[in-house]
Specification:
The chain is mostly helical. It contains five helices and no strands.
């Protein structure tokens, strides 16, 4: 244990970033669960209406599509927060622990750049969606399209928070924690 103020500040920063990441992730997970619950009810109503009472519930399929898009895109930030995102580790497993850590940081930087790019262009896409209308619902497409910039922003925030946590606390991303062979 050290009394070095720099080390203590760094550790505090990492713990704070980790706590913020975990708290944000908790809310996003609850939102994803709620969206999935509504989607399950929606699909059930659609199937019940179509096959049991032979009354077409035309809106259920489109609503399920929008709910699924939002839930799937929001869930990406949950994967990032838990360091459970898709990664190919065959080459990384052959690297030393320090090299794996550096590769993980480089992957995070590239991921941040990609999602920042996606979010930036998603804002324009959402603005254009304000002039397009949904097939069944009398609403513009800005709300379904907003899933792209919102989820991209959440991923960027999670990448920054988990990066700070991992860098300051000296931990490697979960996909890279195997000891070097």
């Amino acid at each position: 244990m050290t009394n070095n103020p720099e080390v203590l500040r760094s550790k505090h920063l990492g713990e704070t970033a980790g706590a913020l990441s975990a708290g944000l992730n908790k809310w996003v997970e609850w939102l994803c669960a709620a969206l999935l619950a509504v989607m399950i009810i929606d699909v059930g109503v659609g199937a019940f209406g179509r096959y049991l009472i032979e009354l077409p519930v035309t809106w259920s399929e489109e609503l399920a599509r929008y709910l699924m898009i939002w839930a799937a895109l929001l869930a990406v930030s949950c994967g990032v927060a838990r360091r459970e995102h898709v990664a190919v580790t065959a080459l990384l497993d052959k690297l030393s622990k320090n090299a794996r850590r550096q590769a993980g940081m480089a992957i995070d930087v590239l991921g941040f750049a990609f999602f920042a790019f996606l979010g930036y262009f998603g804002i324009d896409m959402t603005a254009q969606g304000a002039t397009q209308y949904a097939t069944i619902f009398e609403m513009t497409m800005w709300l379904p399209f907003a899933a792209v910039p919102v989820s991209s922003a959440l991923v960027c925030v999670q990448l920054v928070l988990t990066g700070i946590r991992d860098f300051t606390l000296g931990t490697a991303p979960a996909t890279l924690v195997k000891e070097a062979q």
